[in-house]
Design brief:
globular; binds cobalt (II) ion; 7-stranded antiparallel β-sheet; WH-like_DNA-bd_sf; alpha+beta; about 30% helix; metal-binding; about 425 residues; EC 3.4.11.18; Arc Repressor Mutant, subunit A; binds ligand 57R; Pept_M24_MAP; Creatine Amidinohydrolase
Length: about 425
């Protein structure tokens, strides 16, 4: 048998597998036949109606259930929105050295951007379903479940490797942050409510922290517009070597350029002075740097390689929040003191917290889901011993309305990547 270099592929040489799904045949048939029979087309065989190409691409279901590693089998997840650095960091865009650093980053499992991108794609797909499904009349517990089931399915929850990044924030009206329903919560979403949906997704501790605001009547549309614009200003003006106090000034300027007319009364939109964006570190939602929303003299600079949650909060009230209501949000302190625990139940609870959450934030429902019950005494003991931090809901004055929009950005060596950007916000 003389080995010849094959000239052109003869039909029966298609690898057996492909033939099976008839996809190829379709092609072949399509391609071959008509042309072959001379351009004149005499005796032209009637063109068989091409049945629609069976889309091989797996589509996400509704509600979302398919793990994203199934939808992105090559493990490469979509890059976010790219924004170039300005001024004396604009050289980075085409810097060979910085491009090299990024290639190295992508090869390093600790630094690769693929983890945050996978978390961000989960975030986009879950919020897409949430935005079209959340409606007045639904219980807050129901809304929390639909979001958390989506996140757990799509991120293919696997202990501390991948899962929910922090408690689903569903703060309403004058409450701006850190409210999530506890078991037994009976609150129902109302027609006139302004709902902040703050969702966290993590892959190997890289947390995608992004939030949006929903309202079901036009009264506060302008408030949402103001806060969305302020967050986009923060995202646009963020960059390597940018000082946090200055960035806060740009955010404040945009926010205060808006006003809202409510029942004929014109109200200024105020940035909430004691809330902030923040750096995000592996398994740590607050990495230590805060991006406040009112101009200040914080000279701290943003640095290459940092992850920032750029979030702004606007209010028609005092523009200041206080801790109010029942606590749902908790997190073990990163630098928790190693104090001897007298309460054995507290020792056991801490063991469960370390196993299930480590330093990732959690809420009471997640503790119950991990099998804990009658834990409140032990939990309050861990809080009083300074081992666990409690995060009560943060609210402006009753009657005021607050809104939030948030994106996670990555300060890559060559450019800024808004990893959580979507076609919705
Ligand atoms: O992002 C326990 C969580 N965060 C979830 C998120 O800003 C966070 O207080 C923390 O679950 C814990 C704030 N800034 C002062 C430091 C000036 C709040 C508001 C936004 C939020 C929810 C946040 C804040 N602090 N940490 C992240
Ligand atoms: Co945040």
């Amino acid at each position: 048998m003389i080995a010849t270099v094959p000239t052109e592929k003869k039909p029966d040489e298609v690898p057996p597998a492909a033939a099976a799904d008839g996809e190829e045949d379709e092609e072949m048939e399509e391609e071959g036949a008509p042309e072959a029979q001379g351009a004149g087309g005499e005796g032209k065989k009637k063109k068989k109606k091409k049945k629609p190409k069976k889309k091989s691409k797996l589509e996400q279901t509704e509600p979302p259930t398919i793990g994203l590693t199934k939808l992105f089998p090559d493990g490469n997840f979509p890059e976010g929105e790219l924004q170039e650095y300005k001024d004396d960091n604009s050289y980075r865009t085409n810097s060979e050295e910085k491009r090299y650093d990024e290639r190295m980053a992508m090869e390093d499992p600790e630094v690769t951007y693929n983890n945050i991108r996978r978390a961000a794609e989960v975030h986009r797909q879950v919020r897409k379903y949430a935005r079209k499904t959340i409606r007045p009349g639904m219980r807050m517990l129901e809304i929390a479940d639909l979001i958390e089931n989506g996140v757990r399915n799509l991120v293919e929850e696997n202990g501390l490797e991948s899962g929910i990044g922090f408690p689903t924030g569903l703060s309403l009206n004058h409450c701006a942050a850190h409210y999530s329903p506890n078991s037994g919560d009976t609150i129902v979403l109302g027609e006139k409510d302004v709902l902040k949906v703050d969702i966290g997704v993590h892959v190997k501790g890289r947390i995608c922290d992004s939030a949006f605001t929903l309202t079901f009547d036009p009264t506060y549309e302008k408030l949402l517009e103001a806060v969305k614009a302020a967050t986009d200003t923060g995202v646009r003006e963020a960059g390597i070597d940018v000082r946090l106090g200055e960035l806060a000034g740009y955010i404040q300027e945009t926010m205060e350029s808006y006003e809202v007319e409510v029942n004929g009364k014109v109200l200024p939109v105020k940035p909430i002075e004691n809330l902030s964006g923040h750096t995000i570190a592996p398994y740590q939602i607050h990495g230590g740097k805060s991006v406040l929303l009112v101009k200040n003299d914080d000279p701290t600079k943003m640095e290459e390689g940092e992850y920032f949650a750029i979030e702004t909060f606007g209010s028609t009230g005092r523009g200041k929040v206080i801790e109010q209501g029942e606590v749902s949000h908790y997190a073990r302190k990163v630098d928790a003191p190693h104090v001897p625990l007298r309460l054995t139940s507290a020792k056991a609870l801490l063991k469960s917290i370390n196993k299930n959450f480590g330093t990732l934030p959690w809420c009471r429902r997640y503790l119950e889901r991990a099998g804990e019950s009658k834990y409140l005494l032990a939990l309050n003991h861990l809080v009083s011993q300074g081992i666990v931090q409690d995060y009560p809901p943060l609210c402006d004055v009753r009657g005021s309305m607050t809104a939030q929009f948030e994106h996670t950005i990555l300060l890559r060596p060559t450019r800024k990547e808004v990893v959580s950007r979507g076609d919705d916000y």
